[in-house]
Protein 1
Amino acid sequence: MRIHGLNKTTLLDYPEHVAASVFLGGCNFRCPFCQNGDLVMRPESQPVIAMAEVMEFLKKRKGILTGVCITGGEPTLETGLEDFIREIGELGYLVKLDTNGYRPETLCGLVEKKLLDYIAMDIKSSMERYGEAAGVEGLDTERIRESIRIVMESGVRYEFRTTVVKELHGEKELTAIGREIAGAEKYFLQGYQDSRAVIQTGFHAYAKEELERLAECVRPYVKNVRLRGVD
């Protein structure tokens, strides 16, 4: 397991739970607006935290924390992910997985084995612009569609979310996303946050009022559409 970060207490990463977040390194996408550029592009340059250290921390925090969010990078790339989740679950924690959905076979296996309590899947853009938003031209969008289906039929609590960037997302893209996830439990439009950590600079955020208008493009398809990360 390439564990490169541990947020010991968060009220934001796992809805309705006091949780810890574990950051795994490496990713199969190169989203230009990604906030974890070093973790995605140069995971070998980041400090490594031993899994034993993480598990010992979680043992000590039982009764204080109720959930663990596994994020990245892209967690489904890790061959030891299933065993890691099992160990966390055996401690009595609920497990939330953040994923880009490009490995539906891994996601399906975790769901079938009932190892997940919450799934947060990023929807990068419309299928027509997916490669541009993910930073990987020519990717197979049917893999994204398959993961959307798996998540929605999983019986597990879930959310879909999109980090909205002016240069990559407009009414056309948000309407198309709405059609792809029609009937979903909930969908979040996340405000883009510029920083030195992004993979590519030069992007801009929408104002809150603009995001509200874009949210209206999705509401005919998803009843519960909310904003996140905007003032």
Protein 2
Amino acid sequence: MKTTYIKKLPIPVEPLEQQSAVERLADRILAAKARDAAADTSALEREMDQLVYALYGLTPDEIQIVEGAAK
């Protein structure tokens, strides 16, 4: 892959507060899975999804497309 293509990827740079929220959620999901691999982390994962959607400024229609593609 050429760097020309990678430079075009939309990687947002967000304030530390938003980055920390994503990190905390990721840590909670990982900790739950470390305790019990079968742990239900779907609520935390949905919360993470919402943070990422906001991070990229997705509209409700775009979110529907993403969620529809994930099923």
